[in-house]
Amino acid sequence: MKKIYILLGLVALGTTSCENYLDTEPIQKIAIEQYYTDEKGLTDALAGVYDPLGSEKLYANQLWNQLESGTDESYYARAATITGPMVYNFDASTVLISDYWANLYDGINRANDMIANINLPKMDEEKRQQILGEALFLRGYYYFMLVTRFGDVPLRLTPTTNPNNVSMARTAANEVYAQILKDMTDAEAKVSATRPAYSSRVYKTVVQGVLARVCLQMAGYPLNDVSKYNDALAWSKKVIDSGQHSLNVAFQTTPPAGKPANYYDVINPSNGITSNNAYRQVFINEAADSYDTKELMWEADFKARGGGYNEGGRVGNNNGIIFQPTSSNPLFGQYCWGFIKGTGKLFRAYDATGADLRRDWNLTTYTINNTTAVKTNLAKTVQYGRDCAKWRREYEINLSGDQNYTAINFPILRYSDVLLMYAEAENQVNGPTAAAQAAVNQVRRRGYGRTDVSAPYAISDVATITAASSKAGFQQFIEDERMRELCFEGLRKMDLIRWNKFLPTMKAVSDDMAAAPTSGPLTSGNQQYGALGGKNAFAGGNKFLLFPIPSLEIASNTLIPKESQNPGW
Question: Residue 503 in contact with residue 337, Cβ under 8 Å?
Answer without folding.
Answer: no
